[in-house]
C-alpha cells in the first residue's frame, strides 16, 4: 500500500504541531515544490548578508594591485627569433628537425602578422617530460619577438603541445582544453597575474544536488573537490544560492565555468566572484541561516484565514524544530535505517539498503540494483569475468545522482569482494556521515515529540537541558567549535562526524531546577535536546528514557563499539544540541492568482541577470500561497510549511 506523507512523518518521530489551527482545525492543503522554482533558498552568511546572485563576472581587483601584478609578469623583449640561431638549434633537439621547421615557419608568419589568430599544434607526444621540456623552452624565450607561449591540447587519449603568439591578433588568445577544462599556464602567461589564496563566490544551482554541483565545478577546474568549501548542503529540488570558498583558484577560471559548453551541469552557475589574498575555508555550519521563498499551489480560497492565523502564531510561538523528511531520504530505504546497520557493523545489510531504489524507477535501473545486491548477498567472486561484466553493466546503468551506489560498485570492482567496509569507505565523507546523522535526527525528533506531549509547551520544566549561558540560544544546531580557525585549503578538514573540530568541546549545558520550573523563569525557546554523542548530556526527566528505549530497540550501545571501523562507530560521534522550538524571522505571506497549473510564479536571480521576464497576470482561476521567512542554520523550511498548513502537504518530501 502507498505510504502517505503523514505516515512517513510519524515513522521518523514527527507527530505534533506547535499550535492548533483555528475553528475545526482545517488544513490549508496545497502542492509543495510543484515546480522547482517554487522553492528558493538564499544562504545568510555569518555577517548576515543574504546571498543574491547579481553578476556572473568577477569583481574588479584594485587597479594598482592589477598593475603591480602585470608589471611583475612583463618580460622585456630584447631581440627577434631570427637573431637567435642557438634557439632554433635547441628547439630542433627537443622536437626534431621536421617539427622545428614547422615552428620556424609559424613564428615567421606571426612576425609578419599573417596568422590572424591561428595556432600551431605539434605532433602528439605521450611522454609528459618531453612536453614539459617544450613548454619550458618557450617560457625561457619570452625575451624574443614575437613572444610565443604554449599550452597542452587534449584530444581523446592524445596530448599535443600547442604554440601561439602573445602579440598582435593573438593577444587575447583563450584556448581551452577538450572537455571544458582551462589551461592555467596560458592564462597566467597572458598577464592574469598571480592566483589569489582564496576566491569567494556564489554557487547558484537549479534542481541540482549540492555535491553533484561541486563535483562538476571541480571537474571543470581540474582540481580536487576538497579545495572547494561550503557551509552546508542545500535542497536538490529548488533554486538555491550559497557562498563557497575556492582555495588557490583564480576568478578567471571560475568565470570560464559559466561559458562552458559541457552538458549535464547547465543548471549550475557561479557569480559575485571576489578574489581574496587572505581568509579561510568554510566549514559545515559556518552560516547564520537561510532565507526562503516558498510557493504552495492549488490552495483553496477558504484556506486563507487558516494560513493567515497560522502565520501570526508562527511569528509569536515558532514551530517545533523537527528534522524534515528530506533528512531521511526521498527514495529507497530511509537513511537512518542505513545508519543503524553501519553502527552495528552489518555491512551486507547496509549495502543492500543503500542500493534499494524508488518504486518509480525504470525497470533496467531496478534490475541493475538487484544485480549488485545479489553479488553482495551471495558473496560472488568479483574476479570472475561474468560477475565483473554484471557489475560494470550496473555501473553504466545506475543514474548519475546515485553517488553512494556507484561508489559501492566501483569498490567491489577494485577491491576484495569480502571487504565491504573498503567499498563503503569510497563513499564521499559527507554522504557517509549523513547516514549516522539521520539516525541521530530520528532519535531527536522522537524525543522532541515526547517532550511536548508530556510537559509544558510554554516554559522549561525540571530536568530539561539549557545552556549554562542562556544568552547562547541555539537558533538551529550548536556544534562543538574550536576557538582557532580550521585547516586551510580543504572542506571540513579536522572535523568529527558532527562537523565539529575534533579537539573542541560543546558549549556547557545544565539541567533546569524544580524552583526554575515552579517560577516559570525559563521560556520553552531556551530548551535544547541532544543529538546523542560522546560529548552530550541528556535530560534528567522522562525524556531521557526515549533515547534509552529507542537505542535498545535498535540494538545500539553508544558506550560500547560494535566493531573496529571508527568512522561508522558510536565513538566517532561528538554529538550536538538543537533547540526544541525555533522562531523564524522576516515572515510574510501573500496570495497569488494564476491560470496555468505549470506557470512560473517567481523570477529567479539568473533570469533577472539575463533580463528574462516571466509573464504574470494579476487574475486567474487558481490560488497560490507565497511564503517568505528566514531560518537559522540546519532548520527545515518544510517543517515551517507543515506548521502553517496544519497538515502534510503534497510533495512535502
Automatic annotation (TrEMBL):
Biased composition (Basic and acidic residues): 61-78
GO cellular component entries: nucleus
Region ranges (Disordered): 59-78, 166-186, 481-504
Keywords from the UniProt entry: Isomerase
Gene Ontology MF term list: pseudouridine synthase activity; RNA binding
Any one GO biological process: pseudouridine synthesis
Domain TRUD, first and last residues per copy: 318-583
PANTHER family membership: PSEUDOURIDYLATE SYNTHASE PUS7L, TRNA PSEUDOURIDINE SYNTHASE D
Recorded family membership: Belongs to the pseudouridine synthase TruD family.
Protein name: TRUD domain-containing protein
Organism from which the protein derives: Chloropicon primus
Organism lineage string: Eukaryota, Viridiplantae, Chlorophyta, Chloropicophyceae, Chloropicales
